[in-house]
Amino acid sequence: QKMAHAASAAERTKPDSDSAAEAAACARAARVVLKDVQDNTCEAADAKLKEVESRESALQEREEALERSVSEREGQLSEHQEEIEAALRQLQETQQLYAKMDGFVKEKRQTLLEQAQRDPHPGLYNKTSAKSRVKELLRMPGGDVSHAMLIIDVDNFKTINDRYGHLCGDAVLVAFSARLKALFRTAAVVA
Length: 191
Prior knowledge:
- This protein is an all-alpha fold.
- The chain is 79% helix and 0% strand.
- Helix 1 packs antiparallel against helix 2 and helix 4 packs antiparallel against helix 5.
- The N and C termini lie far apart (126 Å).
């Protein structure tokens, strides 16, 4: 713009013919330079514009590639999430089953222990269990605690078995053991 302004100023001032010719040549040169500058500026601007468009295109392609990659990863994650959730459900079912079985095993163990320690018909401790329980009671600290042991015999029990049969004899033992258990506290060993 300054050159164009200088060229137009030079054309307006024509003091003499040499100066005028010189000013006209100078103005023509200024116009040529101005045109070159404008052409170069346009070319440079076009080059910059093409560079910006190229970068913008590359960025857009990169963005699309990233979106595809994210979409693929989300799909993979979704597949893995479903597998994980299925495995968790299976684990919870297994834990519930294990808890049920553990309770069942504990209950059965207690039942078997009681069956092993007691005679089936009268429900009293058998000889081996009675010895073990008595030893436990005697080992317990207690200082002033006294213990007593009673041995009770049912008179003529063999006659009941022989005359009325073993089922009747078992019924007598069950009734007798129930009365004994009722007489003693729960900590007592009735065998």
